[in-house]
Amino acid sequence: MAFLLIIATTFTFVTIFADMSFNIKGFEFRFSLEIFDQGLTEISIPPIGVISAKTHQTPLKLAITLTNIDIDLLQNLIEEPIEQEDLMEQIIMQIRKNVLIFISRVLLIASFGGAFAMLLLHKRNIMDYFKASLTGFTLLGVLFIGTFYTYNVDSFTNPQYRGVLKAAPWMISFAEQAIVKVDQLGEQLRVTADNLYELFEKVDIIGITGELDDTLKVLHISDIHNNPAAYDFVQQVTSSFDVDFIIDTGDISDFGSPLEAVLLDRITDFSVPYVFVAGNHDSPEIIKAMGKIKNVVLLNNQIINVKGLYLLGTHDPASISTDVTPPSEEIVNEFVGNLNILLEESEITPDILAVHYPPIAEAFIGRIPVILHGHRHRVTMKEENGSVIIDAGTTGAAGIRGLQSRNEVAYSLVLLHFIIADERPVLKAADIIKVFNLQGGFILQRSLFEQPE
To answer: Where is 390: in which H helix or E strand?
Structure first.
């Protein structure tokens, strides 16, 4: 009983009193600690967002929040930058000093927390207080040691981001370059200082500095289901990330009626090619309307080249009518057979397969590098037998179905980054983007893929 109370008071004291502020080169930060979390490190830059990664195995969440900026000091640093080696040495010394102070502070607080348990138990023996204090100190000491030995800063190469959509590229760049690439820290600090100075002058000026360099960017969307807000979402991502073209894997409508085709006019607002394969909720009327839109490319039983990428795709079997029932196994096999014939007769292996129905997509695992589909309304990404299989979820938050759901359905899409390797495009990274409230922030998770030697 007494031991459990010591644990409870120790962790309570640490959670309440462990916060500490410190300054580094014009930046004022706050360290904080949460117990019983998932081994995360979070870096928060209000009002822009939060970048996080699972960096260690202990149940601690380490949080660093930017609380203030000395604009004049940063301007001096930008105008009269010091040598990188000197700058790094100063920063590393300050970081080490503040980390040691923070750890010492937390251990002291843990000691007081353990001793407080004895006060609650009305103990009078001084040794009881000493033992309880030592227990609290030891508990946090073990957690800190475990965190130190399992900490992996490279986890920030696959970060998660929550915050303002326009700021996502800049924040991802901050995680990948300013955190992971320590050897470039001096230059990154000057860049960060410059960006932050302008950022706090006017948030809207954030550019696309966080994008992966020299990549072809493809935006995978699916299952809009007549939701007009989805087009605003797609337009914002397309603009912010400088997308080269869009692939829509179907169910842009709900019933495939001519009335729903009126909503498709929003696609003309996009300044990039819009590749479309129909889903089971689409119909001949929807496909015909899509074919009349200038920037739409219908992908049906063919291999086409868009911006240097070879795409193979087919409309969903159910799109030949207004019947939304998913196809039978026999029809699925027929469509898979037709795509197999195209592959065998073609001298080119497609870079991407785009279909709506997952069973058709799964038939080509191991044969096509990137496979895109929709239908299930759950954004997923997996690697299997040399293929990356991606379901963009529902870019329209499931349309009317989303409104009927008890749980809020996320707007989701996936941004693919391709590089050229041996004269062929290769997938370098993919960003899953999910939004639960289009008026607020969003979640971005980047996955990196190994490149061929």
So the answer is: strand 387-392
